[in-house]
Amino acid sequence: MPLKSETRDKLKAVSTATLCTALFKRGLRNQFMQDIHPLNASLPNMVGEAFTLRYIPAREDLNPITVFQNPRHPQRVAVEQCPEGAVLVIDSRKDARAASAGSILVSRLMVRGAAGIVTDGGFRDSPEIAALPFPSYHQRPSAPTNLTLHQALDINVPIGCGDVAVFPGDVIVGDKEGVFVIPAHLADEIADEAVEMTAFEDFVTEEVLKGRPIIGLYPPTEQQSKDDFVVWRKNNGR
Amino acid sequence: MPLKSETRDKLKAVSTATLCTALFKRGLRNQFMQDIHPLNASLPNMVGEAFTLRYIPAREDLNPITVFQNPRHPQRVAVEQCPEGAVLVIDSRKDARAASAGSILVSRLMVRGAAGIVTDGGFRDSPEIAALPFPSYHQRPSAPTNLTLHQALDINVPIGCGDVAVFPGDVIVGDKEGVFVIPAHLADEIADEAVEMTAFEDFVTEEVLKGRPIIGLYPPTEQQSKDDFVVWRKNNGR
Amino acid sequence: MPLKSETRDKLKAVSTATLCTALFKRGLRNQFMQDIHPLNASLPNMVGEAFTLRYIPAREDLNPITVFQNPRHPQRVAVEQCPEGAVLVIDSRKDARAASAGSILVSRLMVRGAAGIVTDGGFRDSPEIAALPFPSYHQRPSAPTNLTLHQALDINVPIGCGDVAVFPGDVIVGDKEGVFVIPAHLADEIADEAVEMTAFEDFVTEEVLKGRPIIGLYPPTEQQSKDDFVVWRKNNGR
Amino acid sequence: MPLKSETRDKLKAVSTATLCTALFKRGLRNQFMQDIHPLNASLPNMVGEAFTLRYIPAREDLNPITVFQNPRHPQRVAVEQCPEGAVLVIDSRKDARAASAGSILVSRLMVRGAAGIVTDGGFRDSPEIAALPFPSYHQRPSAPTNLTLHQALDINVPIGCGDVAVFPGDVIVGDKEGVFVIPAHLADEIADEAVEMTAFEDFVTEEVLKGRPIIGLYPPTEQQSKDDFVVWRKNNGR
Amino acid sequence: MPLKSETRDKLKAVSTATLCTALFKRGLRNQFMQDIHPLNASLPNMVGEAFTLRYIPAREDLNPITVFQNPRHPQRVAVEQCPEGAVLVIDSRKDARAASAGSILVSRLMVRGAAGIVTDGGFRDSPEIAALPFPSYHQRPSAPTNLTLHQALDINVPIGCGDVAVFPGDVIVGDKEGVFVIPAHLADEIADEAVEMTAFEDFVTEEVLKGRPIIGLYPPTEQQSKDDFVVWRKNNGR
Amino acid sequence: MPLKSETRDKLKAVSTATLCTALFKRGLRNQFMQDIHPLNASLPNMVGEAFTLRYIPAREDLNPITVFQNPRHPQRVAVEQCPEGAVLVIDSRKDARAASAGSILVSRLMVRGAAGIVTDGGFRDSPEIAALPFPSYHQRPSAPTNLTLHQALDINVPIGCGDVAVFPGDVIVGDKEGVFVIPAHLADEIADEAVEMTAFEDFVTEEVLKGRPIIGLYPPTEQQSKDDFVVWRKNNGR
Q1: Which end of chain C is more exposed for a tag (fewer CB within 10 A), N or C?
Q2: Cβ-based contacts of D60 with chain B (< 8 Å)
Q3: Please, where are the H alpha helices in chain F?
Q4: CB–CB of E206/F108 below 8 Å?
């Protein structure tokens, strides 16, 4: 079940904070990746299905520099196989002491039409990656080649990333704040709900900046707040 | 004893580093909050009396999304009660895995005339908060609603924030480097001393950039340094 | 054996990521400092021989504010003795709870012609340091005076910094990503090799951005890739 | 509503692991204190209502050694006021760099009839405390006096301890594995359920040690398992 | 290629420290699991081939208590399938905030003839596990059910455990100090070498306790040391 | 100025907790090593002058296994030079991922008459070391040879250990709780004071166990407490 383009569009216009609240209401409290940050905070939202790559610790004899001569090396294969519109999500065991990938692979992924890349480790060539018009998220910059500490192993299996479970096909949303994982089967309904919540939050923000108190407005426990929101939606076409 | 406006003005013109040294001389070595950063580093200093909010870990049954419908929820109340000119300081137990607050509450606080907001956890909607002309400080962005991990409990009690003791009424100063806590009874004398120290440091910086060695100048163990400073003050009206 | 100016120039044009790979091939896997970041990411590469300063934990009775009146205080002496073109590297035991140095000392170092400064702790006056046209690297901003937690002890002895061994005279290279340590005896050959690698990586990046797949190209396991690189070098004068 | 003595007796005979499962079934996933260990692992279970003490970071001028001469110092008062049968639970902000209390206070607490003591920091005189026939739990030994880093502030307010919310009157259970917090209103029903679960687990353990496979037995998805348990209860008087 | 029984016997008589040195000589520097400890330090060495179980973070909707009613739940299946003589090694992502397994499963594993169990998280019912005559290793006790934070996913795939790569069939050796991973293809030769090294270390220890200096003896750079060892071996039948 | 034998004897009879308080009164708040534990908790106090060894991170090319063939390797030399009655204190940068030393070196140190050994890393062969009648303290067991991560560099220079400054000749005291550093010039007076404090604490403990309240007794703000202590001292010959 591919991600619908309408759902993708809706998710491009909502924040990870709003998504957190929507999932919290359904009992999913742990879908925001911990301590993962955008390299380029000026880009629009990243939205795409998860295509995953799993790393384990590198054993020195299995990870000489020559492994990249193997055309079947999983890191290279993942970059060439990640579908258009998908997000490559790498389980680096939260270890940023060596890189998860560098700018050449990230560039290739961008050119191939992927929607973005996420690791819970770090990227090398991070200044170059940050300059690409391509959403990328990591913990912190890390120059050492991935072979130093990571062995690429599995492609498109369920993983952990930033302490969140990521199943292939889950919908990954990244904004300037970080990265959120929507279970695949909830994507459409969450997108709808988040668009509604965003409209309300935008209304509230306007009201608050005009000087209105929060209590009774957010949440709208007073009828007047609800009425005003109806008017605001009409006036703002939302 | 409210913060004098002259003291506030003086503290707007000094750095947290200078304040650290002034308090170090008095035996207070631990007044700078650890690992707390400004969301918007282009703003002038934040100065205001501490108005505090204490969080404890959230128990799930006590923190459904519906708690915000209670007009007496301490987080909401704190935002509505924080005095004009004060800084809302939140004890989040250094836990940034869920948010301490989001942009709507921070906006409300700004509109109400508060001087700033500090948490030793993280804010959600951090890109929006960073865009406000309002000083805010946290550990790192965190999208999950505060209910996920934090229960707001107490208003205006002594707390810890970033490993520093904060008593209501203490004077909070934030600059681009971080946040400092001046015990209330010391605010006036420290402000005076810090202004003096700042003048001397500005003089030294000018001299150093002209090529003068540090030894004998900083600290001014040579009489010439002291004399030159006297002239500099006169010339610069400080 | 001073750092040759040609070697310095070459290292100004390569990245720490490339250097990591070059040393990885020689079995040195741990030469990139962990969690150390530039204060000013707009500067060109920092390159210089290591001149070191070692801190131990501060005992309160040995570190009153008056110690700076001693013209032989090691921190001050290090700043006045660091050779032109060298990088002052400070072992702060990865403890950023108090500063390693502040803007006045860093300014002095700049004026004296040093190539840069690195600590695995934090700097105070970090906004001022970040505004200097002088490469500086640390873990995070830290306003408390160094006396709070650090006692400067030794000058130009082998140290650890960011979990890397640094011997006086090792060649320190910093870019926007972080800081790398080249053992002194390898500097010339590594510089040559890194320049070659950089040319190839620039070629690959161009090709990738044009749409070429990675496999066979990076590394160049296909002869066509090697041939194209030869042409590219000629065309680009590299 | 004091803790019923039958409930206390039941909780003395169950494990914190069993309690975790019982609360997990009710959606409370975070009631086991993280990284808190018994000083004396040979004692029977600790069971009692929480009587709390809250610490904030110590400011040096407020915490000279002379504060203990004040008969109203909250740490001393807490030890003298903790009710018989209660557990003193100290919020030390998970900071074990200085002690939460020492053997003399713990001895006094024991003599007064308290049920035990818990901190998420460390105890000093830990070898002496470990030798007392009195349940005590901490993170790790810590010799420095509490005044070094902790200021005792509040008595019997809601706190966090080991990342768990603790409200005065909650029922604290400690075994050789660690410490669990039962919300007061659930204590009776949880005690009943845990006794039942324990009987079943004891039956399963016996069966498993005799060689029976887990599947179908644990949980008892096969009718035979349920039948055998009925027989076992009768035979064992449980 | 199963583990030879002679190799198993040899490995029962050597220490993880000796094994570390043997692998260090071959360039494998990272085969000792970090921060993993025996629950029962009175048992002889654990030796067996790795049979692995991989956990990812638990998503709440996929991990209700009822999942254990599924006879195909991977955690249960792993316990029933782990071969006789093998060690069950669990990748818990170094997260000990919830259990990896409890005493009933560990008992079943013991009864089925496994050689031991290792997790880089924690066990629940740890006091009961510690009392079993069965080698078990973890980070620290943890009472919450694994469902709280872990979802069992894969059986017998390559994993990371305690920052070490573990491939199915690797030989796992545990002693009172911790757990070591020998790549399968090296097991025989390492066992031989470690037995030799152990003989020499036992000789050296005896000599040192008699008062002999280390230099020249350890390593045996003096011929006399080598000669004495020859005699010692003969006298001691080793 | 060697440690007087009377001072040594006095320090054998007091606790690190008591010493912490004595130094706290003099403004030295940071003399207890953090997170350092005895391997053998059944031994009497360790007391001796510090003889130090400094490690830096190991660079692979400088630390092959053959370095131990050099009779001047600083680790071996330190063990052979540590004076009788002294404590070898190793600065391992708090990194326990590889060993600081193993049982053979520790045995040699014991045989040579040293008073003990301390590292802020870990020991290998820790079970053997724990069985020696020789005080040893570390963070946690660690089997990998020190060459993996540590290069021994300096002997008997000032170091940091467990976040405490240690100068050669400082008096190191270890008990079941941990390790304390007394600045050399204070050793005699602190020993006297600690013996006095210990007598009072023993008196208080007896009284408390008899049922006496703490307030007025500890500290002895009531005259009766002081009078009773005088009698107790006479009766107990202290």
Answers
A1: N
A2: 27-30
A3: 5-12, 16-25, 74-81, 103-111, 126-131, 187-210, 223-236
A4: no
- How far is the C-alpha of A211 from the C-alpha of A205, rounded, in Å? 10
Q: Which residue of A has its CA nearest to B99?
A: A17
How far is residue E110's CA from residue A210's CA, in Å, rounded to a whole number?
68
In this structure, what token pair is assigned to residue B152? 């707001």
Q: Cβ atoms within 10 A of the Cβ of A113, count? A: 12
Model confidence at F130: pLDDT above 90: yes
The token pair that represents C165 in the structure block: 């061994």
Helix axes F103-111, F74-81, angle to 10 degrees: 30
Nearest CB partner across the interface for C59, out of F57, F58, F183: F183
Residue D1 has pLDDT above 80, yes or no: no
Instruction: Using DSSP bridges, classify how beta strands B179-182 and B171-174 pair: parallel, antiparallel or unpaired.
Output: antiparallel
Position C2 scores a pLDDT of: 86
Q: Which two tokens stand for residue C15?
A: 């990245």
Strands A99-101 and A122-123, by their bridges, are parallel
Neighbour count for residue E227 (Cβ, 10 Å): 11
Q: Given an 8 Å threshold on Cβ–Cβ distance, is C165 in contact with F56?
A: yes
Token pair 């934030």 in the structure block, residue: B174
Q: How far apart are CA D148 and CA D126, in angstroms?
A: 17
- Rg (C-alpha) for chain E, rounded Å, is 20
Q: Is residue F110 pLDDT above 90, yes or no?
A: yes
Calculate mean pLDDT across residues A11-16.
Answer: 98
Contact between B106 and B98 (Cβ < 8 Å): no
Q: Which two tokens stand for residue B188?
A: 């006036």
Distance, CA of C58 to CA of C152 (rounded, Å): 8
- Residue-level pLDDT at C1: 66
pLDDT at C60 over 80: yes
Type of residue found at B181? V
CA separation for the pair C85, D189 (Å, rounded)? 74
Would you say E176 and E38 are in contact if contact means Cβ atoms under 8 Å apart? yes
pTM to 2 decimals? Answer: 0.98
**Span C190-208, pLDDT tens digits:** 999 999 999 999 999 999 9
The ipTM (two decimal places) reads 0.96
Q: Is F36 helix (H, G, I), strand (E, B) or coil?
A: coil
Best mutation target, A56, A94, A179, A182, to test chain E (most E CBs within 10 A): A56
End-to-end CA distance of chain E: 29
Nearest Cα to F92, choosing from F121, F52, F129? F121
* pLDDT score recorded for residue F2: 86
Partners of D24 on chain E (C-beta within 8 Å) are 65, 144-145, 147-148
pLDDT tens figures, A172-199: 999 999 999 999 999 999 999 999 999 9
Q: Least CB-CB distance to E143: which of D16, D208, D213? A: D16
Tokens 């109340």, residue located: B77
* Number of neighbouring beta carbons within 10 Å of residue A179: 30
Q: Residue A1: which pLDDT band, with cuts at 50, 70 and 90?
A: low
- Among residues A50, A9, A54, which one has the least CA distance to residue A179? A50
Tokens for C30?
């741990």
Q: Read off the amino acid at residue C63.
A: N
